[in-house]
Amino acid sequence: MIGPRNNTIARAAVDEIDWWSWIKRGCYVLVASLLLALIVGGTFGQTAAAWAQAIGTVAAIAGAAWAAQGEARRAKVADAAETRAFVDAVYAELEVMYRIFRADALNPLLTLQKLDKPTPLALPYPIRESVFVVYPASASRVGKIDDPELRVLIVKTYDRAAQIMHAMSILHKLTVDRDAPILAHPRMQHRREEIHVAMLAFTERLRIEGEALADNMSTLSTKIDAWKGLQR
């Protein structure tokens, strides 16, 4: 099967063909052949049919070349538009995830930082891990973005966002374990302390990764705007 990259290469090759150069060469060959026929075979009447057939052939070649060039150009424009739409959808998806993270985790983390005693972030409600739809379904489209830095930034931002969602899911599980009735027993004090230490570690990890994600999102927005400006 021919992959997307091969299709792109094929279309680029078609675009680069100098069709009019080939058509002119065909005309030169046609004229030379007809002159030779006149010299050898004689009369215009005998070569009139050859003229008509040859002219029709050249016209057909010219028409096919023009149609192929137009089709290749339209396909290239459509593919570029699809890539721009993909980039817009990618940013929208990441922005939704970031807003959820900021409301559920980052803002509470900033509040906890103001406390005198280190306090872990509690996440009693389940975390939806499969929040991404656009990127997993069309990840190959990233390869069609003609800006290497933008490609890398998109992949890195998704990776960081996925790590944050994973850390939040672990913190949720630790919260549920800590609040389990069985841990209220005095003999479970050691286990409660272990969970508390683990929750503090993941709370700090979320804070660091959250600040990094905020930087990623700001840089990504600026980079996308610059890239789209160059595409116009």
Features:
single chain; 232 residues; mainly alpha; 6 helices; disordered N terminus
Percent helix among the residues?
over 70%
The rounded Rg comes to 33 Å
Q: Name the helix and strand elements from N-terminus to C-terminus, one letter apiece.
A: HHHHHH
Structural class label: mainly alpha
Number of helices: 6
Proportion of beta-strand residues:
under 5%
Query: How far apart are the termini?
Result: 32 Å
Major sheet description: none
- Overall morphology: elongated
Number of strands: 0
Could you explain the architecture of this structure?
The chain is mainly α and 232 residues long. The chain has one domain. The protein has helices spanning 4-16, 19-41, 44-113, 134-137, 148-178, 189-231. Helix 5 (148-178) runs antiparallel to helix 6 (189-231). The longest helix has 70 residues, at 44-113. Keywords: Membrane, Transmembrane, Transmembrane helix. The chain crosses the membrane at residues 27-44, 50-68.
